[in-house]
Amino acid sequence: MTSSTLVKDYMTRNVITVNPDTPNAEVIQLMKQTGHDGFPVKTNGEVIGMVTAFDLLLKPWVHEVKDIMSTDIVVADQSMSLNDAARVMFRMGISRLPVINEEGHLVGIITNTDIVRSHIERSTPMKVRYFKKTLEQLYDIKTRLVHKKVPIDKLRPTQNRVYADELQGRTYELKRGLAEPTIVVKTGNRYILVDGHHRTVAALKLGYEEIDSYVITLDQDIKLGMEKTADKEGIFTLEDIEIIDDAQHPLIAITGPLRKEIDKGAKK
Question: Would you call 36 helix, strand, or coil by DSSP?
């Protein structure tokens, strides 16, 4: 994340809001339906408060939002740098900021999840540039990079398995528009999927026909080493990929043993 990255680049624009007269029972149902634990309270386009799960759990029960919402709230301007928004959220111990425009109207919401996403997505362009340069040096060719949607049924996978738990995470990201682009190499008339197999399989299962991708196009038709390996393993379509559901993704497995060690320490 750079200082030029702005809140408006990562905020969620379609904000679910409630009004002061919304019954708190409806807010609880809304939390169950959406998985969100707080909503801005809005009248005439302006934010006048926030109602959160903490309000509903810790304060005496009342029937309407106006009697329980927090009115001492912090908002962010959409042109604020994401770094500054992260500092505010960290220092004030809050997980979300309603975002307003110059007229003071609510235009979005930025959460700690969006801050984490900005860091993850930052690594992808670096990975793409490194892979592009490697291809050019390895095959002594020129390449061209474009960011576009690629038809999923044209992708040639190069990985023979994916993990069910990681698929669940990627499905969550895709449904919320949080997944970073895949990395694809176009050589001849073939689209070789280099990075993003979990995202692509999840997108296929969701019924998507295209997936957001960085596409590196080679100026020659070259059969890449990873394509030859996929040939040997019989991986030609996404249907050939095995979904592993009896083992955890390596990244998840790392956290398991660490969590157990922490639990042991807490019992001592």
Answer: coil
In the block, residue with structure tokens 């892979």: 131
Residue 8 near residue 2, CB atoms below 8 Å? no
Angle at the Cα of 204 from the Cα atoms of 11 and 160, rounded to 5 degrees: 110
pTM of the model: 0.59
Contact indicator for 220, 164 with CB cutoff of 8 Å: no
What token pair was written down for 89?
A: 């959220």
Is 140 within 8 Å of 222 (Cβ atoms)? Answer: no
Q: What is the pLDDT of residues 178-204, one digit of tens each?
A: 778 899 999 999 999 999 999 999 999
Task: Kindly give the pairing relationship between strand 190-195 and strand 182-187.
Answer: antiparallel
Whole-Å CA distances, 26 to 3, 7, 18, 71, 108:
39, 30, 9, 20, 22
Question: Helices 112-139 and 82-92, interaxial angle, to 10°?
Answer: 140
* Poorest-pLDDT segment among 137-146, 179-188, 258-267: 258-267
Closest alpha carbon to 160 in 234, 222, 103: 234
Average pLDDT of the residues in 232-256 = 77
